Amino acid sequence: MSFQAYMDNIEEKTGFSPEQFLSLGEEKGFVVDGKINPAIKVGEIVDWLKSDYGLGHGHAMAIVAYFKGKRK
Which InterPro entries match (predicted)? Predict the structure, then answer.
């Protein structure tokens, strides 16, 4: 599955675009100045995405990759 397919599936499942997840991550303090906050462990972000949005591990990791700057 391509990265874009992951992003499309996430938006279909949650109603949130990758950009909206980035904003939510900023609100939660997971993302600062467009990068993952170094004080935050990736597992914390994954747990948040799984518990609050019902994402599986692979989809949560795709959002983490988006937070890290992946776009394709």
Answer: DUF4287
